[in-house]
Amino acid sequence: MIRIKTDLPGPKAKQFLDDAATYEPRSMSEQVPIVWKRAERVYIEDVDGNVFLDFTSGVMVANAGHSHPKIVQAMRSQADQVVNCYDFCNEYRPALARRLVEITPPNLDKAFILTTGAETIEAAIKLARRFTGKKEIIAFQGAFHGRTYGAMSVGGKRSGASTRGFGPFLPQVYLAPFAFCYRCVFDKTYPECKTWCLDYLDWFVETETEGDIAAVITETYQGGAGSIIPPAEWMRKLEAWCKKMQAVFILDEVQASFGRTGKLFGFEHHGVTPNLLCLGKGISSSVPVAALVGESRIMDVLTPGTMSSTHGGNAFCARVALANIDAILSEGMVENAAQVGAYMAQRFAAMQRRFEILGEARGQGLVWGLEIVHTKAGKEPAADLALQIVDRCYRRGLLMIAPIGLYGNVLRIGPPLVITQEEAATGCDILEAVLEELSASR
Ligand SMILES: Cc1ncc(COP(=O)(O)O)c(C=O)c1O
Q1: Torsions phi, psi of 12, nearest 5?
Q2: Is the CB of 145 under 6 A from ligand 1?
Q3: Cα of 27 to ligand 1 centre, how many Å?
Q4: Which residues contact 27 (CB under 8 A, 6 or more apart)?
């Protein structure tokens, strides 16, 4: 249950926040001033004893809920045995690889266990280039794939505060328009446009590249750009286009996987299958684990010892990920995400009809992006209002992440997949009350 018993931030929180401001760089956090002490399922208690309802899952990580008993048990038990053994084999790394191969489509028959999502992107780019012998990569405007250089290079917001001034990026990466239908760069409307932006790829490649495409990389839905879900038709055409170009089709599901969208993997909504699949976040619901799952003809182009990572696949992380996958699958969390997600879809649709400042609510399962605008007709991004909404929700005990999106005006909502409909209703009630309050004061 939500419980706010001090001013926010509370006195103890202030001390930690002061230390953070003194000893950490400014780039560390843009979140509301909460200091987490403990978290269980969908509730977070701060250091002053205030309890918040979690609409963040960390950052789409705690899919199985915070401190799931099976995960905690796996941690306790493995901490006593062995944690790190570099790339020597341990009992759990191959078991995790096998589990990932079992739950993904049959063409994906090898899994490389790593530590972070960005690391899987780096690995995918390297493998695609080595496998095809080609260099050019097509990525998409607005994409977010992580903060390392290769991952930033295939990211699609070069002028953003987290990329500006960092160039030059990886050469021979070309950013094509994504299917962002709410703000279509071609000013077209789906479905009448028949996903014209994808057909445009041929002309794009003809004019911008040498036509030697090693890989195409895309998120299944664009997360950081504001939870933008492309039409399934767009994704299917993209898969076919990769085949035509003999390019490796890389799907980044670091965020979209492990039930987040109401299906185990986001690509199941689209009926496509990648050649390489990047996984992270919800793979463990907790500790740093990520994986690149792919076709052995691609994954095996490198010789032994040429691609590994210090912590990748350590026994502790691999065992935790296995316990997490077991919990997600055996406790119906994917189904719950679909069901509660359908309820939230109705609530957000009603809010969109009611409030002028809610331009579009889009999502799938338990990932949502709410576009905050000044007017529905003008769609002018209202980053200031979005910030105020997040702050006011926090003061009422609903935790949301700082606004995201190309213009910083999108509310990101992603509760743990174990949330009940009643808990989701409580969060939606708070959000609705805040939208009402702000709308009335305009
Ligand atoms: C789609 C996507 N890809 C990659 C990443 C990078 O993951 P990590 O922060 O674990 O490197 C993220 C992180 O937010 C993401 O959302």
Answers
A1: -70, -45
A2: yes
A3: 17
A4: none
